[in-house]
Write a structure and sequence with these properties.
By secondary structure, the protein is mainly α. It has one domain. The protein contains three helices and no strands.
Length: about 45
Amino acid sequence: MQKKMDDARLRADYENLQRLVERIPPEILELAKRGQLSHSDRER
């Protein structure tokens, strides 16, 4: 039973993170992939 609850929690966390990433503008993701975001950019 505990494993099922843990699995459900992990799935919910994963789905929440997917939704968060989908809301990030593509140009920001591209800059992040290239490592071109400065510290000040991340605080916005």
